[in-house]
Amino acid sequence: MIKKNKNILVTGCAGFIGFHTCLSLLKNKHFNVFGIDNLNEYYDKQLKLDRLKILKNDKSFVFNKIDISNRKNVIKNFRKNKYDYVVHLAAQAGVRYSIENPEIYVKSNQIGFFNILDSSRLISVKHFLYASSSSVYGTSTKHIQSE
Q1: The whole model's pTM is what?
Q2: What is the per-residue pLDDT across 42-88, written as a single tens digit (0 to 9) for each?
Q3: Using CA atoms, how far apart are residues 53 and 102, in angstroms rounded to an integer?
Q4: Which residue of 12, 14, 42, 112 lies most exposed, with the fewest beta carbons within 10 A?
């Protein structure tokens, strides 16, 4: 890997938004782009593997299979790679699935989020970006949402 100016982490890099975020970041030759994903089977796993294959064609991309709910592995990864920036996109998707499997959501979307956020704090990440889903707004008919 060629050492560049800044290390940037994209969690959920094999997902649709994470993959396209990585592709965009790799165009900037001032970044080393690191991706983590647990490669679960909620969405087509082969599609995720195909996306990773495309990303791995760039020497500035490094992938690590990590479940963000595993605090020890997340902290170890952050300390090793000393990220400057974090784009947190990893989460368990699916509103209906969350009703059937709430423990999976707590593990990924709450504990996992905490692990990414706290690891960012531990290594003094310069900037942290988090994206959510429109699903958090439910069935509201209001056109402009307030956070």
Answers
A1: 0.84
A2: 677 888 999 999 999 999 999 999 999 999 999 999 999 999 999 99
A3: 32
A4: 42
